[in-house]
Amino acid sequence: MSTLTKPRHTGGRKPRVTIGAGSLEHLEGLSDGAMASQPKLADLLLEELGRAKIVPDTNLPDDVVAMHRPVTYRDESTGRDKTVTLVYPEEADIARGHVSVLTPIRIALLGLAEKATFPWETRDGTKRMLSVVSVARVDETRASP
User: Fold this and answer.
1) What is the b/e burial string over 82-116, where b = at least 16 CB atoms within 10 angstroms of the residue's CB?
2) FRET pair for 63, CA 20 to 30 Å: which of 17, 26, 52, 54?
3) Strands 127-135 vs 70-75: parallel, antiparallel or unpaired
4) What would the mean pLDDT of 30-57 be, rounded to a whole number?
């Protein structure tokens, strides 16, 4: 059994994933770079990219989780919300809530739309349901310093 925390889909279809073309090359590069040291994580990212609908950045809907857009998601079993901004590993700054996209749960969030829900199994085997509560709009993120 993998020690990675990853989504478990026990039926039905996976939520739709949409990614802006501008971040695709960098995300593919992250996967390539992780292949030697973290192959399962690299495969997880490639799998998500492979099933994603790639759109020009100007056509990426405002309600889709994307790089540099703050997202709030909820653990439905606890009712707790968490807000993070997905960034590339070299930009991560936990104190500012800027978290690396290169983790299983954040890979799973990438490209999801508001209200998307997906099952999740933690490292200790606990099954949880996570939901995308909100994604900051493009003009909101530009207003932030």
Assistant:
1) eebbbbbeeebeeeeebbbbbbbbbbbbbbbbbeb
2) 26
3) antiparallel
4) 93
